[in-house]
Design brief:
Helix content is about 40%, strand content about 25%. The chain contains 9 helices and 13 strands. The strands form 3 sheets. Strands 3, 4, 5, 6, 9, 10, 11, 12 and 13 form a 9-stranded mixed sheet that branches. Strands 1-2 form a two-stranded antiparallel ribbon.
Length: about 325
């Protein structure tokens, strides 16, 4: 029987993901020669050639790809074994670490934690704020047990390392200065704002979400100001400096008192007495899709499973879930 060395298999998987021996060595805090020696030893133990020269780099052989397919199943099974052992040892106790992007914390994580304090007081939740993309890096390295991110910046459901579930589709409303000519326009569409100055981040997920939503509506937004902090965006809109898309979940972060206008179409909000009108874009409402993820095989552990259930409950209370069945993939 071949000698399946888990440490060496993880090195092979990292090389497959990063593409070079140098990058693999840096990620694993090893020297390039140590990486090469470990993979040479693995190839000898398995009796196959794992790497072949490809220009100035190396690439995985067909045998290496086959080995990795089986290795992923082994890693997932070990995660399940850890989850079963954790459930046996801890039961209702223990800690679950959650990484989440900023607007998901007040809208989803905080309500979930409050519910868990009532229903499972022995289970604690440690929250770590992280950008949507960074949350998956924390999950992969084992720094968090669950990651809340955006579907546009998450690994695909076919990624063998993660299980993910859709939580909700967060509507994006448009924020306009209170005195804007379109603030009370009936049936406002995103395309009606094509000639407006826009406020959104200079880079990152929110920049991409804004530009994609506008491009889907048929125009490229003119960025008048760049900001990532919602309070800063809110203040600039209130000052008449431009318009912006605002995720519905951001309102849970306390941007201002909210009251719905006639028919629920316009929402007035703001600091110190107003200044901003939020309009619901019924005809072409853009949305961002929020997902939760766990390392594949670990989602059955009692702690993460309970936290996930609480997050799903918070998402359902916020709005109708994107997928009512919500199954891990």
């Amino acid at each position: 029987m071949a000698d399946w060395d888990l440490k060496k298999l993880r090195i092979l998987r990292t090389l497959h993901e990063l593409g070079t021996v140098t990058a693999t060595a840096e990620a694993l805090h090893m020297t390039p020669s140590a990486v090469s020696q470990q993979l040479t030893g693995l190839a000898k133990a398995l009796g196959v050639t794992l790497l072949e020269a490809h220009g100035r780099r190396v690439r995985l052989t067909g045998a290496a790809q086959l080995v990795l397919r089986h290795a992923e199943a082994v890693f997932a099974q070990l995660e399940r074994a850890d989850a079963d052992l954790l459930g046996y040892l801890q039961g209702e106790a223990g800690q679950v670490r959650v990484g989440a992007f900023s607007t998901a914390i007040p809208a989803l994580v905080v309500p979930a934690v409050q519910e868990l304090r009532r229903s499972h007081p022995g289970l604690s939740v440690a929250v770590r704020e992280a950008e949507a993309e960074a949350a998956y890096e924390l999950l992969a390295e084992g720094s968090v047990d669950l990651a809340l991110s955006l579907a546009a910046h998450a690994p695909t459901p076919r990624d063998p390392k993660f299980s993910r579930v859709s939580l909700l589709a967060d509507p994006l409303d448009v924020a306009l200065p209170a005195g804007h000519p379109l603030a009370a326009e009936p049936g406002l569409r995103l395309a009606d704002l094509a000639d407006e100055p826009w406020i959104f981040g200079s880079s990152g997920p929110w920049s991409q979400i804004t530009t994609t939503a506008c491009e889907n509506a048929g125009f490229v937004p003119e960025q008048a100001h760049a900001a990532a902090d919602w309070s800063a965006i809110w203040a600039m809109v209130a000052a008449g400096m431009g318009v912006a898309l605002v995720p519905r979940m951001a309102m849970a972060g306390g941007l201002g008192a909210v009251g719905r206008g006639a028919g629920g179409d316009a929402v007035r909000a703001g600091r110190g007495g107003g200044g901003v009108v939020l309009r619901v874009l019924h005809a072409d409402q853009p949305r961002r899709h929020v997902v939760a993820a766990a390392r594949r095989g670990s989602e059955g552990a009692p702690g993460p499973a309970r936290v996930l259930a609480a997050l799903r409950q918070a998402a359902a209370a916020d709005q109708t879930p994107e997928d009512p069945t919500i199954q891990f993939s």
